[in-house]
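Figure S7 source data.
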Amino acid sequence: MSLFAWLREIGLRLLSTLGLYNKKGTVVLLGLDNSGKSTLLHRLSQGQVTALQPTERPHIDEFQLGGVSFKAWDLGGHEAVRYLWFDFLSDSHAIVFMVDSADGERLEEAHWELSEMLSDANLDGVPVAVLYNKSDLPDAWPAEKLEGMLDLARLEARRPIKTFVTSVLKGEGYPDAFRWLGTHL
Ligand SMILES: Nc1nc2c(ncn2[C@@H]2O[C@H](COP(=O)(O)OP(=O)(O)O)[C@@H](O)[C@H]2O)c(=O)[nH]1
Ligand SMILES: [Mg+2]
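Tokens for the predicted magnesium ion complex:
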């Protein structure tokens, strides 16, 4: 098998694993910085996890797999560039919102960013997978507690929304989230 055919084979296998084979659309990964977005994108694009340097902000991580493009964007702290991500979101078909479930101190900020974003009527109907990431850490909050903190029940009326406990580090949980999003693409 040529290198190209081999890479294509790997890409197709990954797409099927994620339930995104033959799907088209843009999946946007959002969340506060340090929640694991770049690590997840890197894992999807390279099939492995490496320690990453914090990126300059604003910064867009992006890659394409079959008919699906993935883009990541850090929310929070940058009021001045807010208009940029509203623009950025306008062509998204699915949203992955990542939360560092071990960072209790920033949950309120994560909640604020999530509600603020989803108050935009342009995003009505766009499916949102909320990833409770870093579940491998001993001080990760349990899902029920995070659920209440993020007030997800209130956001459910205007879109399909579902939560997933994940550890990008261990490779757990996120394939389910993509499979679920794939059913809406
Ligand atoms: N323990 C643990 N650490 C993670 C996990 N996912 C990401 N990290 C670490 O969290 C830090 C921030 O990740 P990064 O992907 O840069 O977050 P981003 O700012 O949202 O892009 C990095 O040191 C990652 O190695 C996870 O599931 N478990
Ligand atoms: Mg990043």
